[in-house]
Amino acid sequence: xxxxxxxxxxxxxxxxxxxxxxxxxxxxxxxxxxxxxxxxxxxxxxxxxxxxxxxxxxxxxxxxxxxxxxxxxxxxxxxxxxxxxxxxxxxxxxxxxxxxxxxxxxxxxxxxxxxxxxxxxxxxxxxxxxxxxxxxxxxxxxxxxxxxxxxxxxxxxxxxxxxxxxxxxxxxxxxxxxxxxxxxxxxxxxxxxxxxxxxxxxxxxxxxxxxxxxxxxxxxxxxxxxxxxxxxxxxxxxxxxxxxxxxxxxxxxxxxxxxxxxxxxxxxxxxxxxxxxxxxxxxxxxxxxxxxxxxxxxxxxxxxxxxxxxxxxxxxxxxxxxxxxxxxxxxxxxxxxxxxxxxxxxxxxxxxxx
Length: 354
Known about the structure:
Layout: E1 4-11, E2 15-16, E3 22-23, E4 26-33, E5 43-47, E6 86-90, E7 105-106, E8 111-112, H1 122-135, E9 143-147, H2 149-160, E10 167-171, H3 179-194, H4 196-211, H5 214-220, H6 240-253, H7 258-270, H8 273-277, H9 280-284, E11 290-296, H10 304-316, E12 321-326, H11 334-337, H12 340-351
Parallel strand pairs: 5-6, 5-9, 9-10, 10-11, 11-12
Antiparallel strand pairs: 1-4, 2-3, 4-6, 7-8
Helix pairs in contact: 1-2, 3-4, 3-7, 4-6
């Protein structure tokens, strides 16, 4: 069992946000796996997706049934080998798993921020992570890797702190949300703002549909009925997919704050590298990292052509980039559960950095 630590870092100095507001003090909850070498050159930052947290691998220290969300990817002999690398995963600001977010106490009022919490962006999240890396004495990360919103963070690291990143691995992500993906976020946000208690499970149900694919839903559920042989001819639960989505929504309420969902999805909505920098080429112009970009064939939330746009921009700049498309029927969530091809590509990619 590798060395595992669940920790928290607090920075007293206020964080200047893209909105022009400040936030402080800030706390980041984080976990580390493995050991930092003497030269501090083997650190890998894992960035989580929308509803993720710092617990990326192994059993949770207080709940042995709570396995890390990327346990298949992190550990001895795995893609991110904790016998060789020091893996760090932090909960983002705006989150609700130990980092400063809407449910945190505002020191100015003594009450929870709620919707007085300032709007945060992906760059703000990364800026807070940079403070954590400085605290850990890590001036350059060997790799920043993440899927979905984690991929947005990974690219932002390479763009905002080019001297601090040797390699960047964005998975199943995009340089900006498509209008359709943006629309799904907006519907979820409106559901929560209308009624936070009922809106959060509904937002999660909507979001969860986008994480799957038609093929994966057909394989798992089809049009099978839930514990009945015919339609009920009322509005009770008829279909297995209906029961599954209700379960996912109800379970989510127990572990996630409705306001955090609002703030984090808003950060994703605002992420637009071309708008911020003028073009994708200008966004990546000063990056020094070696890139490994990965997409999922059946992902219709962040489609493969969106990843290829990132790759083409990097190629036009003569930046070092490799592209992998994972052939999987499981949709967007495949990077969490069906990632053998990516897992095989990571070790040689890391070795190429030596």
